[in-house]
Amino acid sequence: MQLLQQKIREEGRVLSNEVLKVDSFLNHQIDPQLMQEIGLEFVRRFESKEITKIVTLESSGIAPSVMTALQLQVPVVFARKRKSLTLKDDVYVSEVYSFTKQEKNEIAMSKNYVTADDHVLIIDDFLANGEAAFGLIDLVNQAGAVISGIGIVIEKSFQPGGDRLRETGLQVEALARIASLENGEVSFL
Ligand code: 5GP
């Protein structure tokens, strides 16, 4: 997606060979026009798929998910990273190793909002090793719903998550695919 690549070139900050910071439009401040375009692009890419719900991970997955959901007129459910006061029996739980925090975290999703009748599009902001995406897949599988596809805003294709996800046979769409962050520069596939 041209517009997204341009934004990453102009405003992305390469923190290391592995980490890209995009706090000015996705991870802290949010650019609503860009999010709207991202939503439209996800809708185009998953046009052939039945989608009744979008599942994402708080907090940075929410903005692109809401813009996609608005077009599709379906609800968004965001899995939570923090333990809430809800009883354990009411939630599906999965364990995810956090790329940015370098620690294991549980993610949880209420049993009330995704059911076996749903066709779910999973959306997340970044794809690195695939841990977050596989955690979300696990939650949706526990609910017995069908997974219609995986939408990723920024894939770092030099890390293994993309290959791991595509090996499942699911449709995986990444709007920007980064080949390398070496020498402080972003190169796209
Ligand atoms: P994975 O679970 O695929 O290893 O990593 C994806 C998750 O880690 C995303 O949900 C995102 O929050 C975070 N993440 C991974 N790599 C980056 C990165 O380069 N920049 C930012 N801002 N977040 C990242």
Automatic annotation (TrEMBL):
Keyword Metal-binding tagged: no
Xref: CDD domains: PRTases_typeI
Primary location recorded for the protein, binned into one broad class: cytoplasm
Assembly notes: Homodimer.
GO molecular function, one term: xanthine phosphoribosyltransferase activity
Family: Belongs to the purine/pyrimidine phosphoribosyltransferase family. Xpt subfamily.
Record pathway: Purine metabolism; XMP biosynthesis via salvage pathway; XMP from xanthine: step 1/1
Catalytic activity: XMP + diphosphate = xanthine + 5-phospho-alpha-D-ribose 1-diphosphate
Annotated 5-phospho-alpha-D-ribose 1-diphosphate binding sites: A128, N129, G130, E131, A132
Keyword Cytoplasm: yes
Compartments (UniProt record): Cytoplasm
An annotated GO cellular component: cytoplasm
Positions of xanthine binding: L20, N27, K156
InterPro entries registered for this protein in UniProt: PRTase-like, PRTase_dom, Pur/Pyrimidine_PRTase, Xanthine_PRibTrfase
Record organism: Priestia taiwanensis
Any one GO BP annotation for this protein: purine ribonucleoside salvage
Enzyme Commission number: 2.4.2.22
Protein name: Xanthine phosphoribosyltransferase
Assigned keywords, A-Z: Cytoplasm, Glycosyltransferase, Purine salvage, Transferase
PANTHER family in UniProt: HYPOXANTHINE/GUANINE PHOSPHORIBOSYLTRANSFERASE, XANTHINE PHOSPHORIBOSYLTRANSFERASE
Function noted in UniProt: Converts the preformed base xanthine, a product of nucleic acid breakdown, to xanthosine 5'-monophosphate (XMP), so it can be reused for RNA or DNA synthesis.
